[in-house]
Amino acid sequence: MDAVLRAAVIYFILLVLVRLTGKRSLGQMTTFDFVLLLIIAEATQQPLLGNDFSLTNAFLAILTLVGIDTGLSLLERRSQTVDKLINGVPLVIVENGEPLEERMNKARVTADDILEMAREQQGVERMEQIKYAVLERSGGISVIPR
Amino acid sequence: MAERKRVGDLEVHEDLMFQRRSWLVQRVGWIAMALVLLAALVGLFGGAGLLGGEAKAGSKDAMVSVSYERFLRFMKPTTLQIQLSQEAGKEGKVSVWLDREYLDGLQVQQITPQPDTARTGPEKLTYVFEVGDPNGPATITFDLLPEQEIGALRGRVGIGDGEQVSFGQFVYP
Question: Which CATH fold topology does B54-172 show?
Fold first, then answer.
């Protein structure tokens, strides 16, 4: 039983922490984000499995995590509220060439971030050539040129 | 899904109210994280720090005193030091007992010095030690590992039929 409990608790703690740090942190992975991810994975391993080196323990932990993940994805489909809680909502940050400063500040996105995405995705040169830029739920930015 | 929301020419499910509330919750979350880190630094979660370091408890007749860590963590080794006054050891041998309920929740990894004999009892586990130097106080060290219980632990230590020392610890999961 404790294998299942540990896995469930760790899943939810990580879910809450990731949501708390905000989209920008894990949406676009920088090198350091990657390093951070590795360290988190290491730190999670021991409390997840404890002192128990059996196959059964590992299997139960994995099954619990996959089970919760599947369960939540089913729940998301039925309830929009749950979906919003877990995944967040998209946010328009540039409208008709005008960057929406307040939203960008709150979402911790800079104009440079937007322009970088615009160059990468659409070959756009300037802010005024962007019709819409949306901060997606994943943390990535999608750019729609004029 | 529900109706298609539109923002200008974009069909996108924007929900500003939810977004603003999310941001608020996020900021509250950050404060909570900072508080937790602060509590950890102060020692509230075990380890070194102002509150979590060693605590002492002594018996009323001052024969026994115990140094213990107030906050423990599951599977993290801890040390219990029992100090005996000179009076306690004057006969060359001393019987120290710990209550069994306390020891049940922990694994005794090492006892320094090694006891001569260990006796079980319904409520207590008694260890008999030889006292090397009857002219001074004696210290016995128990290396323990919390491996069964989490939550509050109450322990008692005493010598023979004399006064006992009670102490409380808390084990974090």
Answer: Immunoglobulin-like (2.60.40)
Contacts of B31 (CB under 8 A, 6+ apart): none
Residues A67 and A96 in one domain: no
Query: With contacts defined as CB-CB under 8 Å, which chain A residues touch B10?
Result: 92, 132, 134, 144
Domain housing A42: 2-87
Instruction: Record the pTM.
Output: 0.78
> For chain A, how many structural domains are there in total?
2
Task: Show Cβ contacts of residue B173 under 8 Å, excluding neighbours closer than 6 positions.
Answer: B73, B74, B150
Q: Which residue has the tokens 């404790």?
A: A2
Chain B nearest-CA residue for A47: B173
Binned at pLDDT 50, 70 and 90, residue A65 comes out as very high
pLDDT digits (tens, 9 = 90+) for A26-39: 556 678 878 888 89
Task: Render pLDDT for B63-112 as a digit per residue (tens, 0 to 9).
Answer: 888 999 888 888 889 999 988 887 777 777 888 889 888 888 888 999 98
- A57: which residues sit within 8 A by CB, 6+ positions away? A3, A49, A50
C-alpha span between A34 and B31 (Å, rounded): 25
Same domain, A60 and A27: yes
Q: In this structure, what CATH number is given to the domain that contains residue A98?
A: 3.30.240.20
DSSP string, A63-103: HHHHHHHHHHHHHHHH-HHHHHHHH---EEEEETTEE-HHH
| Residues A26 and A97 reside in one and the same domain | no
Q: Which residues of B touch A (CB under 8 A)?
A: 1-2, 7-10, 12-15, 18-19, 22-23, 25-26, 29-30, 33, 75, 147
Residues A25 and A80 in one domain: yes
Do residues A30 and A12 both lie within one domain? Answer: yes
